Amino acid sequence: MKKPELLVTPARVEDIEQLVSAGADAFVVGEQRFGLRLAGEFTREDVQKTVGIAHEQGKKVYVAMNALFHNDKVPELEGYISFLKEINADAIIFGDPAVLMAARSAAPDMKLHWNTETTATNWYTCNYWGRKGAKRAVLAREINMDAIIEIKENAEVEIEVQVHGMTAMFQSKRSLLGNYYEYQGKALEVENRKQERNMFLHDKERENKYPIFEDENGTHIMSPNDICIIDELQEMIEAGVDSFKIDGVLKSPEYIIEVTKLYRKAIDLCVEDPDQYDEIKEDLLAEIEEIQPANRKLDTGFFFKETVY
């Protein structure tokens, strides 16, 4: 039984070595000009440093270029991809076909991970993008465990699944927060709104608070709870899922490091000693609950929801 890759989204370059020690196998980094909902902003210099540190430790770095690109940004893509090729980034994460076309020209040998957030819901679509050049498909968060297993059984590409963290529920390219503040006569810079970690939409009827922030790619509304299935990894590991992702967006560096340590322990035990994993998995979940932010409940997302056709 192979071990799935443990993929982490770091908040800072300074955390890479600690995350390697914690057990991370690979990292997703990038800057908001090209990537969506990253745990931290990584300039070109930061990306280059991250690649250097990771490669010294035998780890991989995937760079996010999964934003939606309007015509004004498309001319920038080949230049950025050429830079990533030059520093030996291990893969590019993309959703917009413009990135695929630019990569064919600037770096035809670059590994590509297809991630459109919501549309990777079946193996046929994953394989279609595989034929177009993608080596990995990042599955949508809105599908259940049965669908994940079926996709992995039939996929001709690597399969990545998010196992921890918040999920994007809505994105608009418009500056909805900016427009709201301007309507109220309160000017507020986008940078301040991006750094503000305590902004929520409050749904009194459902008693939910949805984190909301705004950046260069528009307005993002996130799930009220965090996914956590540290105690439900065995079925996917046995199916051969290639990568488990911990999403650290809107989380502290310390939290990301501690969660990485716990998932590393869970994955190793599940592969090497499944019986022991079964004995301690509830304890691992309890340890995460202890460090979980007070306003972020844990749940299993869509993993055990019934599929409705």
Automatic annotation (TrEMBL):
It comes from the Bacteria. PANTHER family: PEPTIDASE U32 FAMILY (PTHR30217), TRNA HYDROXYLATION PROTEIN P2 (PTHR30217:SF7). This is Peptidase U32. The lineage of its organism: Bacteria, Bacillati, Bacillota, Bacilli, Bacillales.
